[in-house]
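Please review the protein record below. Let me know how this chain folds according to its tokens.
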Amino acid sequence: MGAWAGTGPPDRAPRPVRGAAALELERRVLSRGLWLKTERRGGLVLRRRQRWCPRPLGELLLRRLVIRGQHFGRYLPVVPLRFGQDLGDAVVLQPFAHGATPLRRLTAARRSDPKIIRSLCRFWAAVQRGWLTGGWLPDIGGRVFLPWELYRPWQTDNVVVDGAGDCWLVDAGASAVFHSARSPFGRLHAALMLGALRQCMRRLGCGVDGPRR
């Protein structure tokens, strides 16, 4: 497997808005975590520390986020991440995936599109290979309102499909406790998540390297 084993070439990743003006646009909070929050600002997505998060901890978590994105980017199509500054604070910048649809919002017609099926088969197969070879699992679980919803890969916001039918990982956040093979919790989570992925792949007719149909 080469450096890029995902569903789309890296030069097709969404492009960021250039210039400082991109950071002066109105903020829209997309999600809030315990230590980090995610905002959209025009054509950019920003991740930054929460007000109560100590600066050194925030910068450590942001640095790990970029490192994790680089790791997953070796075998998955990841919307690229880079460091930046906003109002004197360290932030991680990422192009907003314009026109892309999270998996959980795909219509029934798009779910049955052969191009999207092939793309998903390749994406999920690469996730499995990445776990076996690198011991890390990206956060591709479903949007959780109830605990069992986590293991519904179709219900995730962290994987999107662009207008060409290619899949992208848009959130490279993955904690070592729940996503690394070094942790017993990570190994348990991976067993459940990969089992759910294999069920989805069987329903789509995926073979080892893609769909059989």
